[in-house]
Amino acid sequence: MTANITADRTGAAPVEQLVDALGGEFGPLKAFRPYKDVRFSADKRPYKDHFGLVSADQSGTAYYLQVSQHGLTLAGGLYQPEREQLARFREIVDDNSLVGDLEVTLDEVGAHGFAIMVRMSSRRLLAA
After folding, report:
1. How many domains does the chain have?
2. CA 113 to chain CA centroid, nearest Å
């Protein structure tokens, strides 16, 4: 019962409604909620203070949505691509005739008020 009260206080009900509404289009969604294991910490603030939803299909296409006090984050990508998929992606990114100039495109999107965040692990890129 305590977990349900806590979840209700953190706004889980609207997130569950969103999962129901989006599930038909994006497939099964996994929801992440604010979290803080306060048993061993003097600081009781949550270290995860946002809700997140993620969906990935058999091809590895992944969609992510995050809602927090700071705003809304939408992301997409390819989760654990096959070696051939990754090689093809790198070919496309390297060929400006296929995708245009990525920096120019990002500048244009930024000029329309969107914040572009790129999080890449160089270790993972080199290992792939």
Report:
1. 2
2. 19
